[in-house]
Amino acid sequence: MARHPRDVQLTLTLPPTGAALRHRIAEAIIDAIRLGRLHPGDALPPTRALAAELGVARAGVVEAYDELCAAGYACARPGSGTLIAPGADAAAAAGAGSHVSDRPTPVPDTEPTTAAPTWDLTPGCPDTGLISPDDWRRAWRTAAAAPIHPRSAGPTGHPELRHALAVHLRRTRGILAHPDELVLVPGVDSALRTLAAAADLAGRDIAFEEPGYRNARRALEMSGARLRPVGIDADGLDPAALRDTDAAVYCTPAHQYPLGARMPVTRRADLLARAAESGTLIIEDDYDGEFRYDVSALPALRSVEGGREHVAYIGTASKIISPSIRLAWLLPPPALLQRVHDALRRTGENCCGVTGLALAHFIESGALTRHLARASRTYSARRAALVDALRSRPALMDRPGIHLAGIEAGLHMVLRLPDRADDDAIAAELGTRGIAVPGLGPYRTDAAGPRGLMCGYAQLPESQADAVAGAIADVVGRHLDR
Ligand SMILES: Cc1ncc(COP(=O)(O)O)c(C=O)c1O
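A: This is the predicted complex of the input protein with pyridoxal-5'-phosphate.
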């Protein structure tokens, strides 16, 4: 900055906008900087002089100078008045404003205007309307009444939620975990990135279900791991397909995503035995393990003998509450725990402490147990209605290659289609009829992989199942007859 500020003869024209006077003066000065009429180090005119010249109240000029100082365009120096700050020319050229406009930002013309579907069967969306508003509000009131933490929680934070989750996991999934072994992350993809860093998976092979969960694939690939697709059958991932060179295997044994298989106990034991032998880390994504219908519970891999040493278990609030709250939990093998903490400290990924506290109260008060009981009953009825509605259409279901899969658990089923079916085109046409029901295309990397429609029923009222099934039967039938 110049030692003796240059006095400039400044002629300003205020923009004829409806903005407040201080904004208009500040904008005119930024314009003068942009046009090179004012340079860093120049002194702005005394406020009284500029006010007189512009014919405005002096207070408006004082406020404009304050605004320019706050935005970094100017700085007040005792004895020298207000000077244009270093770098103000670059900021003005880049178009940075001195304030946030009062006017609403216009919606760009290119904004997509897709109408909301009438029936949304996109999997992954629980019915949040089933959550008791009283219980939910009570949990948040308790969280809001707690003191605000002055720093972010970090990987060893959220003690209340880790404690509540340890109890929840024991009761609902048969998993024994000390609260200190649990790590909170803002989603399953974050858990996977963390595991990849903690277990040094970059550049190594990970056996990955094919077809499989797209976000998990992306998270692991972005961490530098080499994903090796492993086909699945009616029992999920086949342990015989594992290789000694697989550093890890990603699987969804409770309800294979997307096809819905439940991995039988014998296969679980086999998978663990093989992993123990080859030192492969099993990544168990238990995204919807809380929901099953008319079938007995299968133990989580983590709870099977040997699971504690070889399984990194991941659970999430996305299905039991909503994906919008961004909370998931990771239970790594004890040998990896410290490295998981270190990895999270390096990435800085963290969860909201207040949300964590609210969920902890929701669980501890018994509200989650009540919610899961109510939600399971509702989902069970919705699932049965959709299954019945589809099965009552022999013109659809009697075609070769068509059957329902994955109906025993979770929040979605798959209407499997013949290999020649263009499931994504069928899904697109159903979209035009107001039914969002994705095809399997986004989940397979093998173009010749299985065909089908992913039918999430969590938000589909029983009364609507028949209309949806009718439209699906109609569109699928016409596509297959072409
Ligand atoms: C297999 C699988 N894992 C995890 C999730 C949810 O993950 P998150 O906790 O990141 O919302 C989903 C959501 O649909 C899923 O399908």
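The pocket of pyridoxal-5'-phosphate is lined by residues 124, 187-189, 213, 252, 257, 285, 287, 316, 318, 323, 328 (CB under 6 Å). Residues 367-391 form the longest helix (25 residues).
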